[in-house]
Amino acid sequence: MFVLPPPPPRYTVPVAYAAGASNGMAVPIVETNNIITHPENGCPLQVGEGTYQLQDDLHLATPPPHPSEAPIINPNPLATNPAPPTSGVKLSLVSLGPRNKTAFPSKLNVTAPPFGDGNSTLAPIPAKDASKKRKPKNNIIKSSSSFVSRVIIHEATTKRLNDRDPEGLFAFANINRAFQWLDLSSKVKDEPLSKILFTKAHMICHDVNEISKSSSHIDVVMGSSAGDIFWYEPISQKYARINKNGVINNSPVTHIKWIPGSENFFMAAHENGQLVVYDKEKEDALFTTELPHGSTESVKPSSRSLQVLKSVNSQNQKTNPVAVWKLANQKISQFAFSPDQRHLAVVLEDGSLRLLDYLQEEVLDVFRSYYGGFTCLCWSPDGKYIVTGGQDDLVTIWSLPERKIIARCQGHDSWVSAVAFDPWRCDERTYRIGSVGDDCNLLLWDFSVGMLHRPKAHHQASARHRSSLIASSSQQINRRRADSAGNRMRSDSQMTAADSEAVPDQPIQHPVESRSRTALLPPIMSKSVGEDPICWLGFQEDSIMTSSLEGHIRTWDRPRENISDNYGDHNSSAALGTSVGSNPAASSRGSL
Amino acid sequence: MNPDRQVGCSPPARPSRFASLSPVMVASWSIEETESHRKSRTRAMWYRSLRWLTLIKGSAAPAVGAPPPKKELQPLPMTPLEKMLMELGPIREDGSDKFFGMENFGNTCYCNSILQCLYYSVPFREAVLNYPKRTPIESLEAALAKALRYQDPNARQEAEALAEKQKAANPPRPGQPPNPQQKPEDKDSPEYKKKIALQTLPLLETANNSDSYAMAESLFTSMKDIFESVVGSQSRIGIIRPQHFLDVLRREHEMFRTAMHQDAHEFLNLLLNAVVTNVEDAAKEPSPEKLLPAAESSESLQPSSSSGLKTPNTTRWVHELFEGLLTSETQCLACEKVSQRDEVFLDLSVDLEQHSSVTSCLRKFSAEETLCEKNKFHCDNCGGLQEAEKRMKIKRLPRILALHLKRFKYTEDLQRLQKLFHRVVYPYHLRLFNTTDDAEDPDRLYELYAVVVHIGGGPYHGHYVAIIKTQDRGWLLFDDEMVEPVDKNYVRNFFGDKPGLACAYVLFYQETTMEAMMKEQEQENMEPPAEANPFTTKQNGYPHSPALAHVHSASQIPVPEEHDRFTGLKRAPTAPQLSTHYEHADSENPVSPPPVQTPIISLPPVPPIPETPTSPLVSRKSDLQSKKERAKEEKERKAREEKERKEKEKQRRKAVEAEFKENQRRDEANLKAALEASKATKEDEDRRNHKENGSAKKPAGGLGRFRSFSQRINKDKESRHSLPPIPSLPNGDQSSSKVSIEQGQSEILRKPVSQPPSQPLSPPLGGQVAHSSPPEAPTPPAQPEQQESIKNSRHDRSSGHGKWRSFSLRKKSFNILSS
C-alpha cells in the first residue's frame, strides 16, 4: 500500500505556526481550552477620571494545525514564496438587547438613503413573514465543505443561550484557523459557545449585522485569507459561502463590514485594492468588469482614486457582486462608514486616506499620511472627525467639515494597529481616543478643539510659516462654520442614469502638511499592556477591551463613578482636557 | 532559540568556491527529503511527490514537469531573473538595469551586499563612474573583452557529473531506505541556484584600471573598476568577481585580512571613509595626465581648507550624499546655558528595543539624556563639572540616510556580543522627527531602497544578503552570486520576528518626492499587459506561470510606459515643494470644474432647475400613472437635491482653492521678499565663488537647491547648509564625445535631482498656479557654505585620522566591534 502524497493545497499554509515556533511558542499539538487569568498586579490604567482596573485576561487557545496541512517550516529565511496574510485576534461585539446607548451623541439623525436605493433591481424582495429572518442554507455541523474542518459546540449551548442576560455581550473572535463565539456576560466566558475550525484559510476579519440581529438570529460575515467569504448564523449554526473559491475576487479580504442600514449588503475590502459590495443572499457569478459605455472610464482622471468596475446602479443584479470599485493597486487596510451613513473613509497601504461618497460612488478627498501606509481608522461618534493610525507611528486626526488635518498624535513606539473613539467620554468639545499598536501599548488621547497647539508657531525659524499659519487658523473658524452648515444642508439623492454619465468631479488631493504647521498632541496615558502586539481595541459602556496577536483579550473596568452621571462627567473631562493639554504640549515644545 | 543552528558560513575559510553558500537549506530540505522517501517507495511515486514538492514551493522555481530520470542534461529552466529580463528593451547605458551577482570568496558576503547597495544608489553610482572621469570606452571595452568570460557550456555538465559522483560516494544515511537514484539537488535551494549561476552566467573579472583615470590604485579605484565594468559590459546579467577589490581591501586594512566573518556596517563605514580619503588624496596630487578637472581641482585647492567648496566635479560628493550634520545641544542644569556642538555623520547607529519601529528608534536616539554622576558635563560658562541635559538632533539631513540597527549588543554576563532578535519594523518611507528647528527641509521624504540582512545567530558568523529596490525594476534579492526578483512585501520579512534568524541590519533610505512616490505606487502591482510580449513569454516553452506575477511586482512596467514615467520624474523639479504644492498638478487638469462657474460662489443658492428631462405629461389614466408621477416628482426632487449638493461641493472646492490661493499669495510675497534679500547675498557669493573656483556656473541641480532655498529665508547666513546637487556630471567638454552621448542618455534616466533647473519643465501654468514655481526658478544655485565646510574640515581633522565616525546613541559608543 502506498500512501498518496497529499494534493497540492490551493492555499498556502498559514505562516502563523512557523512564526510562533520561532518566537519560542510551542506549536499546539492538541486542541486546548481558552484560559482566563486575573493577573496579580493587574494592569491599571490611570487617567484623570480615575483608574481602569484590569478585570481579566482571556487567552484564546491557538488551535493545532490541520493534519492535512502540517506546517512546512521552510528553514530558508530567504525563501521567496509569499506568505499568506494572517491577522491577530480581532473581536466583533454584539449585544442582542434593546439599544439603550447613552453615549455621545445621544441621537444622530440619519438622513441618508439606503445604499442601492433607486436601483429597482436591488429592492429587497418582500419576505413572506417579516419576523422570520432568512437563514443561510447549509448546516455547518453536518457540512461536508472542504473549508470547514470541524465545529465544536458547547454541550450546554441551548441552555446557556436561554439563561443568559439578554443584554449581555457576545463576542466573535478569530484566532488562527479557529473562529470562536463567546458569551462575555457568562460566568464561564472562557468556554466558547461554538468554535469553528477552518482549513485552507484563516478568517481575518468579521462583522455582525446590527440591523438584523435578534434573539434568534445573528448575521455574521467573515472574510478569509483566501478571499472567500462566509455568512454564518451562529444560533442555527447555518452558513453560506460567498465568493466561493475566489470566483469574484481571489485576493484576501482585509476588512469586512455590513453596510449600515442594510440587512443584506456588506462591503469587503480585498487586498488587491478593490472594494466589493456583496449581497449575502445572492449567488456568485463570474465577475467581468462592467465599464459604462466603452472603456472611457479608465481614462478618466478620477479613476486614479476610484474606478467603478461595477456600479451599484447596474441593472445586472441577479448575482453577486452588487458593486465593485477599484481604489488602487495597493492593499486596502481598513474602511469605515460615517455615523450619518453618507460617507465612507478608506485607508490604504499607500498612505492615502480617501473620503468617498459611497452612495454616489465617487471620491471626494484624498489625504496623505506623513509617511508610510495607513493601517486603521475610525469616525468620531458625531461624524466630525476621522482618526487614522499608520506606519509613521502616528495617530492623526482629520476634520471632516474642514477637510484638513487637525493634529498628529505622537506617542506610539511602533506602528499603530487600531484606533477607536470612546463615545462615553466624548462631547461636543472634547473627544477621547484610544489607540493600540505593535509596540504592545495602549494609549489614550484627549483632544478638544480649542486646546491644540502648533508646536513651532512661536519659533523664529518658521517665521514665514507662522504668518500663514495664524491666518489659516483664523480662517478655519469661519470656514468651518460655513462648511459644517453646508454639510448639513447637503442632501444626497441616488444617482440617476444621467448623472452617472457625467464626469465626476475630481477628488481634492490634499498635500502633506509639514510638521511645523501641524499641532502635535501628546497622549494622556500610555501603558504597555502585554508582551505581544495589540491588534484590536474596543470601548464598551463599562469597559475597555483589547485583543492581541497571540490571543489575549483583556478587559478593563471603567472607574466606577462615571457610569451614571453623565453631565458632570463631561464637564470634568472638558476641564481635564484643557489642563492635561497644556502641560504635555509645553513639554513637547521643550523637546522639539 | 538555537543560535547556531542555521548559521550560514562558519568561521574557517573554505577551500571551495561554493563553500560560503549557506548550508541553511541543506539540513532542512533533507528532512523533507526523508519524509517524502517514506511516502514514496517506488520511483513513480517518487516523482509524483517531487512534483508536488515543487508545486507547493510555488513560484520560486516553476515546475517544468517531473525531471526525467535520464542522465543527460536538461536545458536549464530560466531563473526568475531571466524571466523578468526577457521583457526588457535594450540595455541602458547607465547601468541601472544590469543585475550582476558577486562571487563570494569565503565570507565576503559583507562586502558583496554593501557593494550592491552602493551600486544601486543612483547618485552614488553616477558619482563613482564620473569621478574623476570615465574610463574611455575603448580601453574599457578592451579590458572587458578580457574580463568577461562566458561559460563553456560543457563546464556545467562536468561539474554536475562531478557532483553526482561525490554524492554517490557519500554513503546513504542510516535509517533511510536505499534509494537507487539519488535525489536530484533541490532546485530551490540557494546553494543550487548559486552554483548554477556560477556555472552558467558570464563571469566578470575586474582588473586595475586606475591608470586610465589617473588615480593611484585604492579602494575607490577598485570599486570604480567594478562599477565601470558592470556598466560597460555587454551582458545584462552575470557574476562579478571582486577579487581585485578584496585584494586592495586586505592589503590596506589588516582587519579584513582574515577570512573571518566581518561586520557589514563596519565595512560600509570603512568603505565610505576610504572613498573620501582616496578621492581627496587624489585631488591633492595633481597629475599631469589629468585634463580639465585636474586643473580645476588643483586650482581650487589653493585655499587648502576650502576643499568643500568645489563644484560637483570635486571631492565633496561622498559628503553630499551620505553626510548629515548632528547638533548636540547640552544644557547645563546649573546655569541653564545651552552649548551646541555640530558633528558630521555618514550613517546613524540606533539602539533597538523590542517591538519598536525605526521611527521610534530614531526618536529615542534624539531623546534627552541627563549627564550626571560620572558622566558630568564640563560647563564653560559656570566652570566645572555640572549636571546637564543633552540631546542630539539632526541639523542637516543627508540625501542618503544609512541606518545601522544595533543588533549586536555586548552583554556583561556573557562577556561577548549577542544578537538581538527584536522585532523592529521599518516603513517603506520615512521622515525624520528628530531634526533641529532650523534644519533645512525638516520634512524631507525618504524612501527605503536597500536593506542589508544578517542571517545567523550571532555577530561572529552568519551571512549577509542585500535586498535592493532598483530604479524601476522593483525589488531584487542579491545573495552573493544569486540575484532574484522578489515581491515588495518580501522586504518586510526581516523585521526580526520571522523564523530563520534573518534580520535587517543596515537600512538605506534615499531622498525622494511625494510625486515620485505616488507615481511609483501607481505602477506597483500592475498586471503586466498580456499583449505586451505575447511571443517572448512562450518562446522558450515555459509558459508564464500566473503564480509568478507577484514576483515581478513593480518590475514589470511595460516599456512604453517608461516614457511617462520619466517625464513624470523630470517634472518633479518644477514643483519642488511637492508636499505643499502638488495639488496644482490637478488644478491644471482640464477636467477640473470649468472656471465659468466661479460666480456661483457669490450668488445665494439658486433654486435649481430640475435637470432631469421632464417628459410631457400624459393624461392620467390610472393609479399606476399617478404612481409614476409621484415617482417622477420624487425623481425631480432628488435631482434638485443632487444639484444642490453638487453646488455645495463646488463651493467647498472653491473655498479650498481660494484658501490655497491665499496661502500661495502669501508664500509668494514672502518668497519675493526673501528673493530680494538673497539676491544680494547671491551676487556676493557668486562673485566669491567665481574667484575660488572657476566653475560657479554649474547648473546646480534640482531639489536640494530648492529645498535649501525654501528655508533659507529664515536663516542667517551662518547657519545655512545648502546641499549642492550631486556632482556626477562631467561637463560635456571634459569627456570624449562618446561619453557625453552616454551622459545624455543617462541623464534622462537619472532621478530628478540632477535635472538642470533652467529647463522649462512644467507646461505653462495658468493664473494662480503659475506663481508657484517661477519665484523659485531664478534662485541662486546652491552655494556651498564656506564657514561650514571649514568647520567641518577642521572637525574632520580633529577627530583623528580624518576618519568619520558613525554616530551611536551614546556619544562614547563607537561601534563596539571595532574595539
Automatic annotation (TrEMBL), chain A:
<comment type="similarity">
    <text>Belongs to the WD repeat creC family.</text>
</comment>
<comment type="function">
    <text>Component of the regulatory network controlling carbon source utilization through ubiquitination and deubiquitination involving creA, creB, creC, creD and acrB. Required to prevent the proteolysis of the CreB deubiquitinating enzyme in the absence of carbon catabolite repression. CreB deubiquitinating enzyme stabilized in a complex with the CreC leads to the expression of genes such as those in the proline and quinate pathways.</text>
</comment>
<feature type="region of interest" description="Disordered">
    <location>
        <begin position="115"/>
        <end position="139"/>
    </location>
</feature>
<feature type="repeat" description="WD">
    <location>
        <begin position="367"/>
        <end position="408"/>
    </location>
</feature>
<dbReference type="InterPro" id="IPR001680">
    <property type="entry name" value="WD40_rpt"/>
</dbReference>
<dbReference type="InterPro" id="IPR036322">
    <property type="entry name" value="WD40_repeat_dom_sf"/>
</dbReference>
<dbReference type="Pfam" id="PF00400">
    <property type="entry name" value="WD40"/>
</dbReference>
<keyword id="KW-0853">WD repeat</keyword>
<dbReference type="InterPro" id="IPR015943">
    <property type="entry name" value="WD40/YVTN_repeat-like_dom_sf"/>
</dbReference>
<protein>
    <submittedName>
        <fullName>Catabolite repression protein creC</fullName>
    </submittedName>
</protein>
<feature type="compositionally biased region" description="Polar residues">
    <location>
        <begin position="569"/>
        <end position="592"/>
    </location>
</feature>
<keyword id="KW-0833">Ubl conjugation pathway</keyword>
<keyword id="KW-0677">Repeat</keyword>
<feature type="region of interest" description="Disordered">
    <location>
        <begin position="459"/>
        <end position="518"/>
    </location>
</feature>
<comment type="subunit">
    <text>Interacts with creB.</text>
</comment>
<feature type="region of interest" description="Disordered">
    <location>
        <begin position="559"/>
        <end position="592"/>
    </location>
</feature>
<dbReference type="InterPro" id="IPR051362">
    <property type="entry name" value="WD_repeat_creC_regulators"/>
</dbReference>
UniProtKB/TrEMBL annotation, chain B:
<feature type="compositionally biased region" description="Basic residues">
    <location>
        <begin position="800"/>
        <end position="813"/>
    </location>
</feature>
<comment type="similarity">
    <text>Belongs to the peptidase C19 family.</text>
</comment>
<comment type="function">
    <text>Ubiquitin thioesterase component of the regulatory network controlling carbon source utilization through ubiquitination and deubiquitination involving creA, creB, creC, creD and acrB. Deubiquitinates the creA catabolic repressor and the quinate permease qutD. Also plays a role in response to carbon starvation and the control of extracellular proteases activity.</text>
</comment>
<feature type="domain" description="USP">
    <location>
        <begin position="100"/>
        <end position="512"/>
    </location>
</feature>
<feature type="compositionally biased region" description="Basic and acidic residues">
    <location>
        <begin position="620"/>
        <end position="670"/>
    </location>
</feature>
<dbReference type="InterPro" id="IPR018200">
    <property type="entry name" value="USP_CS"/>
</dbReference>
<feature type="compositionally biased region" description="Pro residues">
    <location>
        <begin position="591"/>
        <end position="613"/>
    </location>
</feature>
<feature type="compositionally biased region" description="Pro residues">
    <location>
        <begin position="754"/>
        <end position="763"/>
    </location>
</feature>
<dbReference type="InterPro" id="IPR038765">
    <property type="entry name" value="Papain-like_cys_pep_sf"/>
</dbReference>
<feature type="region of interest" description="Disordered">
    <location>
        <begin position="519"/>
        <end position="546"/>
    </location>
</feature>
<feature type="compositionally biased region" description="Pro residues">
    <location>
        <begin position="171"/>
        <end position="181"/>
    </location>
</feature>
<dbReference type="InterPro" id="IPR001394">
    <property type="entry name" value="Peptidase_C19_UCH"/>
</dbReference>
<feature type="compositionally biased region" description="Basic and acidic residues">
    <location>
        <begin position="679"/>
        <end position="695"/>
    </location>
</feature>
<keyword id="KW-0645">Protease</keyword>
<dbReference type="InterPro" id="IPR028889">
    <property type="entry name" value="USP"/>
</dbReference>
<feature type="compositionally biased region" description="Low complexity">
    <location>
        <begin position="293"/>
        <end position="307"/>
    </location>
</feature>
<feature type="compositionally biased region" description="Low complexity">
    <location>
        <begin position="764"/>
        <end position="774"/>
    </location>
</feature>
<feature type="region of interest" description="Disordered">
    <location>
        <begin position="154"/>
        <end position="190"/>
    </location>
</feature>
<keyword id="KW-0788">Thiol protease</keyword>
<comment type="subunit">
    <text>Interacts with creA, creC and qutD.</text>
</comment>
<dbReference type="Pfam" id="PF00443">
    <property type="entry name" value="UCH"/>
</dbReference>
<keyword id="KW-0175">Coiled coil</keyword>
